[in-house]
Structure formats: structure tokens, C-alpha cells
Records
---
Amino acid sequence: MIKSRSESSRIRTRFAPSPTGLLHMGNARTALFNYLFAKNQGGDFVLRIEDTDKERSKPEYEQDVLDNLRWLGLEWTEGVEKEGFYGPYRQSERTELYQKYLTKLLDEKKAYECFCSEEELDAQRQYQMSIGEAPRYSGKCSSLSKEETAKKKKAGEKSVIRFVVIPKEVTFEDLIRGSVTFNTALSGDIVIAKDLETPLYNFSVVIDDSEMHITHIIRGEDHISNTPKQILLQEAMGFERPIYAHLPLVLGEDRTKLSKRHGDISVTRFRDAGYLPEALVNFLALLGWNPGTEEEIFSLSALCKQFSFEKTQKAGAVFNFKRLDWINGFYLRQKSPSTLAELCTPFLEQAGLVEKVSEDIVVKETGEKLSKAIVEKIVVLYQDRLKKLSEIGELADFFFKKRVEYTAEMLSWKETPKEETKNALNMFEEIISGISESDWTKEKLENVLMPEAEKQKSRGVVLWPLRVALTGKEASAGPFEIAEILGKKRTLEYLKEAKEKLS
RNA sequence: GGCCCUAUCGUCUAACGGUCAGGACAGCGGCUUUUCAAGCCGUCAAUCGGGGUUCGAUUCCCCGUAGGGCCGCCA
């Protein structure tokens, strides 16, 4: 399961989320950078679920992390082996290990049991802050004798386990920030476990990073002040110190740490809105890293080849939705018709326009079965206009509806009088009627209709009402290609309907 | 309040002592065009302030200032 130290001189990174919410963009970026660095170095990328908080950890959140990591293409390369593949490591399954070290620290008097109440500690913190001191634990229970401790426990007094923080200067080298120094005297003895079965973050993380032979700890900048505490813990247990890299934070528009209050920023939400994994990866990579060239488009494998911490930013980066849209649109435009059709289908279903009946795509309103070719033609029409897949429904709904809704006013191009619009429609109807079903192509339609349109003051006089008649919209793809897909019968029906609206 | 981190166009960023401070997104304008896009072209827009060091600072140092992060029996 876990490789021994001798065979693991290679680079190992880890992503260690707590399953207390949906995987969000900030965490996804941390996972990505861990993955990129590991791959770049030919190393391993370990996934560890930090579910020591029994109340807040939920299996569905863990599932969300796993699903989205896979969806993004960030497959972890190691974990608990299960039926041929790797599940993630879970801290909840490693309690014995933590207990072993906890007992050891207690025995060596590097940790002690503390009976102070939360209220008591709260009041102390408040007071210290009010007089401008760093809030820290007084060390009150550190001097308790063995007998006193035993007595209190016997009396049923609640206790936690504190680690004796040695006051000193701790300096570590950060791959992104260089040398960082903290004075641990400013922090009191920290709580490392609620009890022998319930370790807390700062403690379990140190054990696991050592046990799993993690060589590089790549995490958000919000962990920078946890680092000296973890280093002290490493020293107390005789562990090797890993190399640190603290990533700049992903920020919201207001330049504060990206969180729920900036809206739903879960990966799942972006996935549901029709963003492509390659777009998200590309976008996230450029949030804090740059290639040093003017290239903007990177596949995951290209990122793996080029990634380095030298090109990593120190300052936080605002999550820019418009830029994400642009990148997503770019990737959408690269898709083949059949891939695009496959990608769009779930979104057409979601919009209530079609249904999948076994392998067939069926129009919900009419029950008509759609050929693969037709679906492809439809989505290709909107390929250039799509920023995200979820937009396809609204853009192309008229293909799947019996009747499109619009007002008579919409039919007229600019200031064109009603009569003129009606005449134009009449003229088109007449010409179109003469085209045979077998000739019904956008080229044919354009060839016969365009010359007539040219005779008008402006082509818009006829082309505009044609579009509105067919789509019910003021903005759409070209009317000839739409008419081709709609077919002769429906096209004529829609024209007739438009004329009725005008009279 | 204490500690730590950070600072180039609105946003993401390039320039590792010498550039007209470059690119991209967004914005704006144009071309194309029946519309909306896409595409192409153009345009607006930045080195937080003050001291040093240096022939020369966006770049190195110091001091301010501003922003952020952390100060949990969460992670």
C-alpha cells in the first residue's frame, strides 16, 4: 500500500481535501498544481480525504471530490487498493496510527491533557486580543501532575490533548515565497486531538505526510501560518521536513478568498452549466501560473510538461468569469460535430426539449425521432455562439417546438411598414413552394432567394422577417441553414403563420 | 489588535538592471453582415508612495501605504 522510504525517492505530492462541502474552484486549483508538479517530475500524486471532523464530513461530499477530480482528468496515482483500483486514503481509517503517536507524545511529555473549558479559553482569547496580545493558551494544564490528571479524568472532566509548542524561531524555505520565518512563542500549546480517537488537522496532517512520504506540500497560502506548528510537530516525532510551496489564493471580485459567499463556485456547478473540463483546467492553470510565453491554450498534458514553480505567481488572483467563458467557447469551437452533439444532448434534455429513448433522441413535444445527422447540424449552427453548453436550449429551442412565439412587431425589419414585410414574405413563400424536397438545401435556398432579397432596399427587409418567422427570435443563425434543417413543410407553415400575424 | 504574505492596465499576466512597459480577457471602434455570434484589424488602459543602491530601476534594499491570509476542541 504505502511504499517504503527506500523505494520512494521520487517526488510525491498530495491533495488533501476535507469532505465538508462540494469541491470548489480554489481547491480544484490546488489539486491541479499538485498534479502538475507530480507529473512534471515523474512523481506520484496522492489523494487523501481528511475526514477527521466526524460531524461535518459527509460521504456525498467525498464522492463529489472523487467524481470531479476524475472528470477534470486529475487521476490520483496511489491510494488504498480496492478491487483493482485505488480508493483514496481516508484519515478516518487511520485512527490507530494517530493513536500510536499521540500516546508516544503523551508518554514523552511532549503533549499533555488539558481540562480548560471552552468558555474559559474564549474569554482568555478575547482579553488577550483586547490588550493587543497574540491570543494563545496560557499553559495552565501543562503543569498538572500525573495524579491530578488521573483524578480529573476519573471525576469525568472533559479534556483535550495539547502539544507543547517550543518557543523559537522557525524558518522554512517556500518554493514560491522563499524564506519564511515565524516565532512560535506567539502561539500557545495547540490542541492536537480531542481524545485518543479524535485527532485534529495539524496533527494528523503531519503524521500522514510523513507516513505517505510526501516530498512536496503544495497548498493554499491560507495554510502558511499552520506550517511552523506542523514543523514543530515533525521535529517532536522525528520526521523529515518536506518541501513547502504555498500557492496564492484564488480570489472573488472583492479580492477576498474565494468562498460560498461569492456564489456557488463548486466544480459541479460549472460542470452542470456546460463548462468543459479542459477549459476549466486551462483556466485554473493560468490563475497563478504562466508559461513565460504568449501562449494561452494548454492541454493538461502540455501543462504537465511545462509546469514549474519558477513561473508561479505570489499574489492572489481574481477568478474572472468572462475569461473562463472565452476559454470555454474556444474549446467548444474545436469540437467535431458528433462530439458537440453528444455534449449538447444532455443539455437539450435538461431544457425539456428532447428525450433520450434508449439510443434515440426524440423530440418531446412531437415524439419525432431525430437522426444523429440532424442533431449535429443543429448544434453546429450554434457552435460559434456557445459560451457554455447550457445555452444550447435557449438558442435552438425552435427546432424542437411545434410553435414559436413572437409578436407581429418583431417581424418587420427596422422601420419597414407591415405591408411591405407581408409582401416580402409572400414573395418568398411563392418561390420556396417551387423548390422540390430533393432540392431543399441551404445552398439552393440561398441561390434562389438572395437575388430577390437584393432587389429590396435592404436585404434585411425580407431576411429579417424570414428569420423571425422561423425562429421567433431577433438573433439567430442564418435563415437559409435554419430553413434547410426545418424542412420545406415546416418552413412554409411558419411563413403562413407569420403572414397571419401581420394581417 | 498580533503575526505572516503580497503589490505592473478593470481582470489574468510578461519584462529575471537598459523595452516606445508586451500579450490575453473585458471595454470601445471598424471590417464582414439580414440579426446575434465567430473571425480579422484597430483603440483605450498599468509599474501604490517616499527614500536609497546604481551611469541607469517595474526589477535590488529600507520605510510607509494599501490589500489579503491566519490567529478554533474546522480543515
---
Amino acid sequence: MRTTLPKFDSVFSIDCVIFGFDEGELKILLIERNEEPFKDWWALPGYIVEQDESIDDAAERILYELTGLRGIYMDQFYTFGDVNRHPQGRVITVAYYAMIRLNGSKDLKPISNYASKAVWIPVNDLPKLAFDHEKIFNNGFDKIRHKISYQPIAFELLPEKFTLTQLQHLYEVILNKKLDKRNFRKKMFNYGILKELDEKQKGVSYRAAKLYKFDKRKYARLFQKEITFGK
Amino acid sequence: MRTTLPKFDSVFSIDCVIFGFDEGELKILLIERNEEPFKDWWALPGYIVEQDESIDDAAERILYELTGLRGIYMDQFYTFGDVNRHPQGRVITVAYYAMIRLNGSKDLKPISNYASKAVWIPVNDLPKLAFDHEKIFNNGFDKIRHKISYQPIAFELLPEKFTLTQLQHLYEVILNKKLDKRNFRKKMFNYGILKELDEKQKGVSYRAAKLYKFDKRKYARLFQKEITFGK
DNA sequence: ATATAATGTGTATTATTTACACTAAGTAAT
DNA sequence: ATTACTTAGTGTAAATAATACACATTATAT
């Protein structure tokens, strides 16, 4: 009977699907790999978990190394553990998604050296990816599509102040579906998590829309219950 | 720059929350551990993933070793990767839940030797568990509670033929909530995934209820769409 | 002033969810 | 065979949520 842990060549890594919403397009952050295997391929940002860090910490670190951002909304969504998913050995990867506010920010210079660059690429225009990263991306995209229909995570992708049209466009992009303006607004107002501001859009060449903020307190209260199954 | 995988003492394991429904109670299968650490403690069935098996395969193997069953509904739900969750080294664990039909079957003799026994224990009456297994269980329970509200996974727990009252009791136990009989039936019939049989319950000391079967084909059709967000 | 382009608003219809209580059928005991 | 018991099985009205659908308003630009 085994009383100590076995030692075989196994490691675990983190891969991140980092979503951003910019100029009406949903994008993810991809890196160009700077090391073998798949050197020079596009890939999801990810790396091996250090021995003394939790997987959540590793996910945050990787995000930080690539974007310089901390305290971002991240969720673990699935772990990929097929035997041959990594050509150099047994590597299982825990996948996270993150959502960040882009605000028209440019491509980033990664702090890490495992990536030669990091670029925002529209989800509808992704290149071939290293490893099983396409599968990981698809799985992550499905997850946020599902989640957005019962939790308004969309706010994480928008600037602090946003218009309802921007919010609707984001929903449309994620759900890949046109929505009705009046019904959409009714639904959002009914959630009661929008704070109307005394402010309007600026710099647009047409009628400026009202700006709104997201009310985190009410949000938290609303989605504690989450699941409803009446009497 | 690193070009090969690092080798430090890391392994990954699988833990399973195996649900069963028996005599109106929701239960999970626990083992009594037969090896250190936590020898003689209660724990979730789980073990280290072999080098040449995928994590999904490992989950199925572990379930098989404990129950003798194959082809059971299983879903990966979360990966736990805190640094110190295992006293002997760095072990992350990928958690799965499974649902099996109990049919009043007795406790099982495990085929494996890492467990001295395996016992069905009501979820409302769990002992202290080894490692972080309480956290894992709670997380898994939350997941099925969530999932049952949009996919009728409850059928996986019931015998092939069941009464509506049994089905309702199962929902009530999982949701921890009384449901209204008429509304519940209406809802279930509306799904259109119940096949009414020409048969009744036997061996009960009161009016026997009609038996139903679950229509897998209609189920699959119904839950392909899954998410709805109207026009 | 005028054209332009997006904002912002209401109502009727339908479907879904909820609340609620009694009769019917079979079993068991006498 | 009657009776008592226990669970099965059923309908309707009210409230809420979801859907379909079109035009006047407002700010900007010329």
C-alpha cells in the first residue's frame, strides 16, 4: 500500500481566457509564445503553477504579468486533463476566464518573458491556437454565455459609466443575437441594479445617451438567491 | 528561458461526490481511508490520477472501483488547488460528481484497497471529512442544486420507473424546499419528457401511483437550446 | 433652418408562475 | 362489506414575466 505520493513527471498549468470589450467587439488576449513547444504560435496566456502558489494565485499572477492589472473578476471554469494534450509530458491545465475593462487601451507589452507579445483579438477572428487552446476558448466562451443569462457579469467588461446601448450591444455580441431595445431596457431596469447618472455621453456626433452605473450592492442582494423554483 | 517541463513534487488527484437517492434521502458515497494521511477518516472517494489516463478516465475508474458501475452520469465541477490542501506535498484535485440509481442497494464492498469500506451516508448527516473534502462536497452540492433548476438531472438518481411523488421528493431534497404538488406536475408535464406507463407501483400499503419513464430523446432535444433570452 | 442619427418611450398579447383544497382510489383492519 | 386511512390525482383564477412591435424626441453637424 502506498504511503507517500508517487513521483512521476506531472505538472499543472493555468490558462486564461481574458475577455475585453472594445469598439463594439468582444476580444480576448492572446500571446505569441516565446518558448517551445509551439514557439511563435498564438496561445492563451498561461503558464505553469509554481510549487508554492495556489491555482487561484497563479491565475492572478499570469493575468498581472500580461496586463499589469490586479483585482480583476476571474472564475475558474474547467480543467483539461487529456493524456496527450502537452507534447512534453503530462500537463493538466486549469482554465480561468477574466473580464476586463478595455477603454480603448492599446495592445500590451507583457512583463513576462514566455510571451513575445500580447494582443487583443476579436473572438470572431481567432487564429489557430497552440495545444488544445481552441477547445479551452470555446468552453470558456460557452460558460460566459451561459452565465450572462443569469448573472449580469457584462458589467465587468464595460467602463464604469456606460450607456444602455453599449450594454445591449455587449449582450448581443456574447449571445450572438439581436435583442429588442425596449424589452432589453425594461428587463435591465427591472433588475434594479442600474444607477442613472446626471450625466451624458460626450464626444459623439449625435444625440448623447444617458450614462449609467452599475449598483454593486443591489446586485449582490439580488443574486444571492440566484436559483428560483417557486413554491 | 525554460524549454522543458519543471520537475517538482506535484501530482493531481480526482475526488468524487457520488450522489444516490434512497428511501427518500439524498446520500453520498463515502469511504473510510485505509492509508495515510487521514487513515481511518471518512473521505470522498478519490485517488491519484495515473500517468497514462485522462482525468475523465480516472474519475470513471474510481467510480468503478467503488461501485462496480460504468457508464454513469459524471460531470467535472471544480478543481481545488490550494498549496497546503494535502499534508504530504503539492496535490491539486479535480472534483467530479456522479449520480447513480440506488434501488435500495446495500453498502458496497470496494474493489480498491485504499478504502477499507464504502458507505452511503445522507447528505444531512455527514461526518467530519479528510482534507478539504467538506468544501468539495459543499461545492458539488451547490452545483447540482443549480443544475437541477435548468436541466432535469434528477432522473439520473431515480429508478427507471418512478412515480411523480418520488420525483418531487427528490427535487425537494435537493432544493431543500417544499414544492406544490399541482404546480410541480404541471411543470414536469410541460417539459414533455415524461412517458406515462401502463403500470402502477406495487407493494405499497395505500393507493398505488402511476409509473413514469424519462424520455431521453425528448430531453436531448429540449435542452439543446438550454439558454433562452428572447428577442 | 435643416438633415441626420441615435435616443427613449408604451401597450396589447401571450406565456409562465403562483396560490390554493378537495375528491378518488386503493389498502388494511374490523 | 363497511369503515378508516393514506396517498394519488386534478383545475382555475390571479399575478407576473416575456414578447412583438413603431414613432416622436433630442442633440449634433452642416
---
Amino acid sequence: MLRVSTRGEYGVRLMVDLARHYGGNARSLTEISQAEGLDAKIQYLEQLVKCLREQRLVESTRGAHGGYRLARPPEQVRMGEIVRALEGQIAPMICATEGAMPVICDRLDGCSTKVLWGRVRDAISNALDSMTLADLVEANRPISGAGQFVTLTPRARRAERQLS
Amino acid sequence: MLRVSTRGEYGVRLMVDLARHYGGNARSLTEISQAEGLDAKIQYLEQLVKCLREQRLVESTRGAHGGYRLARPPEQVRMGEIVRALEGQIAPMICATEGAMPVICDRLDGCSTKVLWGRVRDAISNALDSMTLADLVEANRPISGAGQFVTLTPRARRAERQLS
DNA sequence: TTATATCCGACTTGATTACTCGGAATAGGC
DNA sequence: GCCTATTCCGAGTAATCAAGTCGGATATAA
């Protein structure tokens, strides 16, 4: 549990693809989705990339030969920015929402579990913010091109979960 | 996002309640749910406490004056054990499931994002395992009894999410 | 024997996720 | 100017999952 949705999954992969091609031509969603084995979900990617554009993480050009490129060099894009753009603020529990001090939960200091969820949130934030797109591209360099991408069926996801 | 479900939320609160009363009589679900403002969900708690018993985190006695007690002193119960019992293995992404090395994703080393999700998973695990029930009870001691517990409606949850 | 509990599996429902659909706007190449 | 490739946009849908319900069996103290 504590899952990242497909928005986060696909969106991060999309950004890694853009990082790999940083400096070159704009990448169309068609190209990206094929490279990532997501050609069936190209329309879904449209939605995701919209969030990324609104957060100024990518820039787009329309029309023929159009597409997307990173708005900044990969070293300057923290993974936390990407995930937040796609999934919203990190908040394992409603009383532990990043940034906003929730008025909604009136247990305030009386709630002993708040400490716990706050720490979980900070741990996630730090993990995400301590890596950049460049780190991910780097890690993969030596074996670039190897391996096919597989999109998991809901069935497979469930199967995996059973392993616990 | 990256939410803990109500299973984790209520289950942790239940365990904190048991920790507060460690050494005393068994606590019935009726008592616990009233103390935590969850009286409406007592049947739901039954489900959760079942998982906790199966993982030997609590012991139960049936019949009148029955109830639940911690199987170990609070200092010896890591929060990670509790959350895993309730929500399953920590796995922000299917390819980053605790323990099991997933055969399902054949991208293997070729997948640059695996590093990211692995780190997120470890960060969560460490945060949870570095706290015990005793830590949570401690943190709350000075103001015990203050503040009412509020169960949030789905509407309120959605409202909170908009804040991002 | 009665009241209070845990125990158990199956069922229901509402919310959320993961898409799909149809079409408008924009830009390059002929 | 027209055709094609592309981004852009809002609304709709279908499947999944979380959250909670229901009915009843079993155990135990008073």
C-alpha cells in the first residue's frame, strides 16, 4: 500500500524520456508513448502532460513537428516537483498535508498519531526531493535500449499484491 | 496522494489506545471505539483488529469482560509492523514491493525509475520502523484527554485536497 | 440463562482511478 | 490554401477499490 497511481508512474516515465532527449528536438506524445510502451494510453498521457506544463516543468509547441521539451536541464528538476505536479501535495494522512496546516482536524496537539504521519510525509518528500531527473537518466545509461517496457494489467497488479 | 487508508488510520489509533491501557484490563471494541470517536464504525474495527491479531500484535479474550490487549509492551511494537499488518507490504509502485523481488516487471535493471520508487519505499519503511507505540503514547501524555476526535467525511477529505 | 464479547464470511455501496471520446486550435510542408 | 500532424480541452464512462454493513456463530463471566 501507500501506492503511487498510474499518473505518477507514467508521468515520471514521460519526464525521464524528455530528459534523455534534452537538447534535441521536441518529442511528440506519439514518440514518447511508443518508446515507453504506452502507445495505447496516449490520450491519457495528454492529461498528465497538461499538469506538467501548468507547473512549468515542460514546454510545448503545437502543430506539425511539435511536441514537448523540458523547461529546465534535468539536473535542475527534482523528482518531488514532478510527483507533486501529477499527484498533488504529499499527504499520507489528511492531518499531514504538506504546506497547509489543516483546520479540519481539531485534535491538533491532542493527536498522537500526527507525529507519525508527519514523519512519513517528510520521509517521502525528502526521498523525492533528493533525486533529480539527471540522477535517473544517469542510473540507466549503461544499458540504454535494453529491455522492453511492460504495462501491467490490473490482474497482474492484484497478483503481485498477494505476494505480501 | 500517497495516502494511507482508513484501515491504517483507525488501526493505528486502536493500537495507541491499547498502548495507553497496557497492563490493565482487556479493552473491548466498544470502549476503544468510544474513546476514539469511532463508535459508528465498530464493526469495521472488528475487521482491522483481526489482522492485528493474526500478526500477533494483539491478544484477545472472548465473552463478557473480554476484549483486546497488546501482545508485547509498547516499546517493542514498531509502527511499521502495525501499518504492514493493516495495509500490506509497503509498495509505492508494484516494482518496489518490500521483500518480494517482482518477476512481473521485466524491465529489471533497464528501468531507471525503479531506483526512485525503491528509495521512496525505504524512506517510508524507515520512518515507520523507527517509531514505536511507546513513542506515540509518550508524545501525547501531557495533554491527555484534551480535544475531541473527529471522523472526516469524504466531502471534507476532498475539500482538504483542493488546498494543494 | 442472559448479557456481553469476540469471531467470521459474504455482501453492498460510494468514491476514485484510469481511462475514452469528440472536437477545437495551431503550425509546418506542399 | 489545404492537408496532415500535433497540442489543447472538457466532458463522459467503465472498472476497480475502499469503506462500511449484515447476519449469525461461538465463547465466557455473572
